[in-house]
Every structure is written in structure tokens, then in C-alpha cells.
């Protein structure tokens, strides 16, 4: 009799949670985990275990990959703003009938003393300047930076993991860094650059939240880009533990 092969779980990654999920599932004998990264970051922090890097070629390419690699379950643990891959995952799962779960960290919630201005897009955020502030701490990532290129009447402190490509805002200082960040560090940055407005996506999570506390303490407004809607009909887990429990339900029984 052949032993039952471990169930193959594909984790769509690019987030801290995806890495933690791969760590949590790795030692499980009934599972075989492959993590997938888009390949955007030059030197990504790799999860343990098998990793594949690069796009699949749309929803059809992902569906083909799921079939070819006999995937038993998919966890979409991508960033809440990575809209396209999440929609591709939903379509590929529907056509292949492979179970799909989305792992989404909860969004941030304003607290007492916060002055948050929610906007629906980066373009709307750009239009809020310079009325909301003239010295902007911009943490929305390098890919959307071109949206702010026409804003020539504000200074931007731009923090990204890899350097952005032009076009960029004309008055800009670049800070290459990646979280987690500390409250002390964020306080010092706001003070050193005399920042009077913070611009962020509602990414959620603890690693990049200290900037929000620093902004509250400094009494400056925060322009928060709301999350895009998640694909309908896909069950959502809010924690790595819940997603790991879901994956383990596909685990192959121990042979004996
Ligand atoms: P996106 O717009 O949703 O995806 C664009 C394309 O990139 C997808 O169609 C897919 O190409 C490929 N792709 C994205 N994530 C992938 C993955 N995990 N594995 C394989 N291919 C992937 O995504 P994005 O906003 O550019 O983000 C790219 C990656 O960076 C994501 O994995 C995300 O988790 C991470 N990230 C994004 C943000 C953000 O603010 N957007 C922040 C932090 C980290 P094909 O169609 O060819 O399959």
C-alpha cells in the first residue's frame, strides 16, 4: 500500500503573515507548502520551505499551475492592496474547484485624538495636497509614486523598500527602509523632517502602525487610502492561526 502523499498548499505571499503561515505549516507532516512571491522586491525576506517567484500569467495561468502541481488548497495571504492577484486567485479557484481562503489582517481603526482623512485612491490623496499639509511623509509604496509627480507645491519624504522609478515628485527625499518600525524612530523622523501630514494606505498590522501613533502625538493629520474591496464569496481569516487551522484540515492522514 502506498502512503498518502501530503496535501499541497499554495500560499500566495508577499506579506509578514504569509511568511508566518509558511513557518507555522512547514513542520506539519501531512502538508507540503509552496509559497509564491511576485518578485517585485529585489531582496525579499523568503519564507521557509519551497518558494516560487514571478507571476503565473493571469487567472488562467494560475489555474493551470494549480492543476499541474496538484494543489489541494490555496491561501491568498497577499497584501490587502494587491487587488489583481486576489481577484485572479478567486477566479482560478472557482474554475479548478480548489478551496481558497483569504488571510487578511484587519484594517487600522482611528483612536482618540486621531485626525484621519479617508480617501478612496492615491489620486484622491494627491488632490488633498497641499491643503492637508505641505511636508508629507509618504508611505504608500514606490509603485504609485507617479500619481504624486505633478504635486510641486509640497515636499515629500518617501519611504520605500526599493528605489522608485521616475516620474517622482520634484521636491522629494527618499528613505530606503522596511519595517518593522519603532515609535521612537517614527517620532524622530516626523520631527527631523518637520512633517505636517502623513499619507498611508490602510495596510493594517503592527509592523508599520507606530507612524500612526507618532502622527497622533504630533497632532498632524493622516490621509488614509481605504482598502479596495476583496473578491466576493471567498472566506476570510483574520489571523495566521485561523488560516493555519484551515490548511491543516486538508492534511493527509498519517500512514501507518
Ligand atoms: P497585484 O497588482 O495584485 O498583482 C499584479 C500581478 O503580479 C498579478 O497579476 C500576478 O501576475 C503577480 N503577483 C502578485 N502577487 C503575486 C504572488 N504572491 N505570487 C505570484 N505572482 C504574484 O499585486 P501588487 O500590488 O503589485 O503586489 C505584488 C506583491 O507585493 C504581492 O504579492 C503583495 O502581497 C506584495 N505587497 C503589495 C503591497 C501593495 O501595497 N500593493 C504592499 C506590500 C506587499 P500574474 O497575473 O502574471 O500571475
* Unreliable parts: none
**What is the overall shape?**
elongated
Number of DSSP helical runs: 7
Summing up helix and strand content along with how strands pair, one would put the structural category as alpha/beta
Rg (C-alpha, Å)? 20 Å
The helix/strand series, from N terminus to C terminus, equals EHEEHEHEEHEEEHEHEEH
Biggest sheet: strand arrangement: 3-2-1-4-5-12
Give structural attributes.
single chain; 256 residues; alpha/beta; elongated; binds NADP nicotinamide-adenine-dinucleotide phosphate
State the gist of this model:
The protein is of the alpha/beta class.
Describe this protein's structure.
By secondary structure, this protein is α/β, with parallel strands linked by helices. It is 27% helix and 21% strand. It is built from seven helices and twelve strands. It has helices at 16-25, 58-68, 83-96, 122-127, 183-192, 210-218, 240-248, and strands at residues 7-12, 31-37, 50-53, 73-76, 100-103, 116-119, 135-138, 155-160, 172-176, 197-201, 222-225, 236-237. α6 links the parallel β10 and β11 (222-225). The model has no long low-confidence stretch (mean pLDDT 96). NADP nicotinamide-adenine-dinucleotide phosphate is lined by residues 12-15, 36-38, 40, 55-58, 61-62, 78-79, 81-85, 88, 141, 201. NADP nicotinamide-adenine-dinucleotide phosphate binds next to β2, α2 and α3.
